[in-house]
Amino acid sequence: MLINNAAILGSITDHIRGPLNMAEMTEVFNVNTLGTLRVTHSLLPLLLQGQVKLIVDISSEAGSIEQCSRDGWYAYCMSKAALNMQARLVHNGLKDEGGQVMLVHPGWVQSYMRGELDVAADLTPEQSAQHIAVLIDRHEQFKGDQPAYVDYKGEKLPW
Questions:
Q1: Torsion angle, CA of 127/113/44/151, rounded to 10 degrees?
Q2: What's the pLDDT band for 42 if we cut at 50, 70, 90?
Q3: HSE on the CB side for 107, CA within 13 Å?
């Protein structure tokens, strides 16, 4: 099993009518999307030797195109939507060998993504990880022709 869990936020105040920091967006994509692809590609031979062949990508509800209501957060939202597409492509390439990809939104977690601890968030990192561990234990129920895209409670998210 492989769990890809690395992300940076980038600006959440950029707006289409204001300046856009393209260099920062490139850095966010490099970490949030391409970083996951690099790790998955590098570890794939080992993963395919295992019994489970499960990849869990920590995504976000922010990657859902269907439910997007924000008018900013360009780098983060776009990188997570790209991560979701990447997961679909990887899943398509592995499902015939018994491989499975899950995309999990970890919930609103008390983290330092905005530069300081977000104490208003609903979940501690430990609580979120416990929920995700339960989903991993139940991964077979999510197996299918496409990757599961779910929140930390196992509720399906719209693509």
A1: 40
A2: very high
A3: 19
Largest Cα separation within the chain, whole Å, is 50
Residue 145, CB-side half-sphere exposure with 13 Å CA sphere: 0
CA pair distance 80, 62, nearest whole angstrom: 7
Give which of 78, 94, 100, 68 is closest to 33, Cα–Cα. Answer: 78
Q: Cβ contacts of residue 45 below 8 Å, gap of 6+?
A: none
User: How confident is the model over 29-51, as a mean pLDDT?
Assistant: 97
Per residue in 106-153, pLDDT tens?
999 999 988 899 999 999 999 999 999 999 999 999 999 999 999 999
The sign of the CA dihedral 153, 108, 4, 79 is positive
Q: Which helix (H) or strand (E) holds 61?
A: none
The per-residue pLDDT for range 71-102, each reduced to its tens digit, is 999 999 999 999 999 999 999 999 999 999 99
DSSP 3-state helix, strand, coil percentages of the chain (rounded to 5)?
A: 45, 15, 40
Whole-structure pTM value:
0.95
With beta carbons less than 8 A apart as the criterion, state whether 83 and 59 touch.
yes
How far is 44 from 92, CA to CA, in rounded Å? 14
